[in-house]
Design brief:
Layout (H helix, E strand, L loop, with lengths): L4 E5 L4 H11 L6 H8 L6 E7 L2 E12 L2 E9 L8 H15 L4 E7 L3 H9 L3 E8 L4 E9 L5
Parallel strand pairs: 4-5
Antiparallel strand pairs: 1-2, 2-3, 3-4, 5-7, 6-7
């Protein structure tokens, strides 16, 4: 398991997130795509995961509604996958959201992204519904989990 250093970064690091995203996913997106999606959002959170001072992953999110934080995009470079880095990003994101008063964290995933589906289940997310993604002509599975600590 990799011991990544997960750090909160500002919007000045969006170009790095775009670069990481485009190394991991298709179709590629430009900086303006990320700026548009985050514009006007409350409580935007940008995280970078570093291993040996090298950026190897990222996670983004924002307030969906006052009690729900939305985990928007997360990714880890292929050579660093299956080392627990995505879990570390999720843990940091969830802790931040709980510290900022959110009761739930929500994420969405396409059915074909099996590693993310497995991670969501391992992290005890519940399936909260489905949503049609017109851009990809496919359904998204909506996952949600409580951030409250049970005694």
């Amino acid at each position: 398991m990799a011991d990544a250093e997960v750090v909160v970064v500002g919007t000045g690091e969006l170009p790095l997130i775009v670069e990481l995203y485009n190394e991991m996913f298709r179709p590629p997106h430009d900086l303006e795509f990320f700026k548009r999606r985050l514009r006007g959002r409350y409580s935007s959170l940008l995280l970078i995961a570093n291993v040996d001072r090298r950026p190897v992953g990222f996670s983004t999110g924002f307030e969906l509604k006052p009690s729900v934080f939305f985990a928007w995009l997360t990714g880890v470079l292929p050579d660093y996958r299956r080392q627990g880095i995505a879990m570390q990003l999720h843990t940091a994101q969830s802790a931040w959201a709980a510290e900022h008063g959110y009761n739930f964290i929500r994420m969405e995933c396409h059915n074909q992204h099996r590693p993310i589906l497995h991670m969501a289940i391992a992290l005890e997310f519940n399936i909260a519904g489905f949503r049609w993604d017109a851009d990809r002509s496919d359904n998204l599975i909506i996952f949600e989990k409580s951030l409250s600590v049970e005694s």
